[in-house]
Specification:
Blueprint lengths: L5 E6 L5 H15 L4 H4 L15 E7 L2 E15 L2 E13 L8 H15 L3 E6 L4 H8 L5 E3 L3 E5 L10 E4 L2 E6 L12 E3 L6
Parallel strand pairs: 4-5, 7-10
Antiparallel strand pairs: 1-2, 2-3, 3-4, 3-10, 5-9, 6-9, 7-8
């Protein structure tokens, strides 16, 4: 890794404008190489893409922001069952620090998830990250669910676009105060809001 990373937990209301500017720059540089469209939400001082997180795990090193994970408590629906989760998203790691991603940030967030006593942490990732998540799941009680459709509202309403998006990502579930056997059966997850 080569760099000493210091993880900080920051509630959203603790961030000032300079923090948002620094995070927005981090996300543009992190998501930009995957496509200009992916960097677009982070223009100017916007440090979130869809739903705004309530808590962030931010890794800093001598060069600034090194990695990030956001958390937002929300109710989702698994088929017709309402379920409180802590959605995890806005994953990012600076390109020079490969291997410092989800597992390190999750270790930082896990004690907070336990304090919040949410039944589950939930997140989605692109299917291309399956091998990475599978490696991580060997060291953590993370379950990867496939063939689940996830419906989200778009960040902004537009007259030329449907207001919802339906995707087939990998769904990641981490039991916190319940067991994985308590996760409801179903093939559709409705966020009832934008993706974190």
């Amino acid at each position: 890794m080569g760099s000493q990373v210091d993880w900080k937990l920051r509630w959203e209301n603790e961030l000032d404008l300079a923090d948002h500017v620094e995070l927005a720059d981090f996300f543009r540089k992190t998501y930009g190489p995957t496509g200009t469209f992916n960097a677009k939400p982070f223009e100017e001082a916007r440090s979130w893409a869809g739903a705004r997180p309530e808590l962030r795990a931010i890794g800093y090193d001598a060069r600034g922001v090194a990695a990030h994970m956001g958390l937002l408590r929300r109710f989702i629906q698994v088929d017709s069952t309402d379920l409180l989760v802590a959605e995890l998203g806005l994953y990012g790691v600076r390109r020079d620090l490969k291997g410092l991603g989800i597992s390190h940030s999750l270790r930082t967030v896990l004690p907070v998830l336990q304090q919040l006593a949410v039944p589950f942490a939930f997140g989605t990732v692109r299917p291309q990250l399956h091998k990475h998540i599978q490696r991580f799941s060997r060291y953590s009680p993370v379950t990867i669910l496939k063939n689940i459709q996830v419906r989200s509202t778009l960040r902004e309403a537009r007259v030329d676009k449907a207001p919802v998006r339906l995707e087939d990502p990998l769904v990641i579930v981490l039991p916190i105060s319940k067991l994985m056997s308590d996760w409801p059966a179903g093939n559709t997850i409705d966020r009832n809001g934008p993706e974190l």
